[in-house]
Design brief:
four-stranded antiparallel sheet, Cyclic Phosphodiesterase, Chain: A, 14 strands, Ribosomal Protein S8, Chain: A, domain 1, single chain
Length: about 350
């Protein structure tokens, strides 16, 4: 067996630690990755994938201001909810970014009116480098937050609503174990969700509405209003005896195209909330029952779910009829109150 395998070359690093130097075959660029003397060789340097050229079309990057003393400054709007994450424990995160990018970063205090974070440096490239790091950090922090808004198609009127109420009554009349009225969504709230977002202040809410208006461009090649066919019951998990969400299936090829393009667009804005669904496609559905709607807390040995087997057996092919969509709404999560017509909306796109 090769000596390189049994006793590979090592390199001493900090804190008296030795690390093995991986040997790469010449066919894989060995001369580029390795050197005869690993202790003196210059390490592999990965190219900067986020060079300044990548941000030439970025409006924020164009706002870098050159000061009279020759230094550069950028004022960047950041919601106050991110201040703690940007500063870090005892300022550690902020100091790290400043050290790595050779910049000075000013984060407004919580009681200040301005929400502009200021980056300043002697070099414009340093300001851009700090901007990139801050954006990536904010994106990571946003993914950990609960959604505040969702884009929806309202279905709470006409025949669909009436058919929903009829199905609800039929299920309740069947007196199935564990199925009660609390599990059902309100007839005033039935909708299709086209995306979820984290919008933390007025500026981000206004930006979201502006971005939604830009989505109008994808309606040009589609036939509006969208025709919706709502039929059949399904669940998200594989075990109908332990179900969290039961929904109605939606068939609408053109709405599907529009929803996918909207999702892809919003993912580039940094406002889109993390989800566990297909990153490229929206699952069109109309939620009917959800275990989160109930106020009952499960016992220690019980799961927060319900048994949907009998519902699927009896009503699996239930037909809610057809509907049309000529409007989408940016709604506030959990904003419905008893007696309201629908969720509170921040804005809409009509077509």
């Amino acid at each position: 067996m090769s000596r390189n395998v049994l006793a590979p070359p090592t390199q001493r690093m900090s804190h008296n630690r030795n690390y093995r130097v991986n040997v790469v075959h010449d066919d894989f660029g060995g001369s580029k990755w390795n050197c005869a003397n690993p202790t003196t060789a210059k390490g592999y340097e990965e190219p900067d994938l986020y060079a300044d050229d990548d941000f030439e079309e970025d409006g924020t990057d164009c706002n870098v201001e050159e000061l009279s003393n020759g230094s550069y400054k950028l004022a960047l709007h950041v919601p106050k909810s991110f201040y703690g994450g940007l500063i870090g424990f005892k300022g550690a995160t902020k100091r790290r970014i400043e050290l790595e990018t050779q910049t000075e970063i000013y984060v407004p205090r919580q009681n200040e009116i301005s929400t502009d974070l200021v980056i300043q440096s002697k070099e414009r490239s340093n300001v851009c480098a700090a901007l990139r790091k801050i954006r990536l950090l904010i994106e990571s922090l946003r993914k950990r937050m609960r959604p505040t808004h969702f884009l929806a198609v309202a279905l709470n009127s006409g025949g669909v609503q009436q058919r929903f109420l009829k199905l609800k009554q039929n299920i309740l009349d069947a007196q199935l174990p564990g199925i009660d009225q609390e599990l059902f969504i309100s007839e005033n709230c039935i909708h299709i969700t086209l995306g979820v977002y984290v919008l933390l202040d007025d500026a981000e809410r206004k930006q979201a509405i502006s971005e939604l208006e830009l989505c109008r461009q994808w309606l040009v090649d589609l036939h509006t209003p969208f025709e919706l066919n709502i039929q059949g019951l399904e669940i998200f998990n594989d075990d109908p005896s332990s179900t969290r969400v039961l929904y109605a299936r939606i068939e609408s090829p053109e709405l599907q195209q529009f929803a996918n393009k909207c999702k892809k667009h919003f993912q580039t804005t940094g406002l889109y909330a993390a989800d566990n669904n297909d990153p490229d496609s929206i699952k069109l559905h109309m939620t009917l029952l959800n275990s989160r709607y109930t106020n009952k807390k499960p016992n220690k040995n019980e799961s927060n779910s319900f048994d949907a087997r009998e519902i699927l057996k009896r009503f699996g092919d239930y037909d809610f009829g057809k509907a049309q969509c000529n409007e989408v709404h940016m709604c506030v999560c959990k904003s419905y109150c008893e007696g309201d017509d629908f969720y509170k909306t921040t804005g809409s796109l009509k077509f």
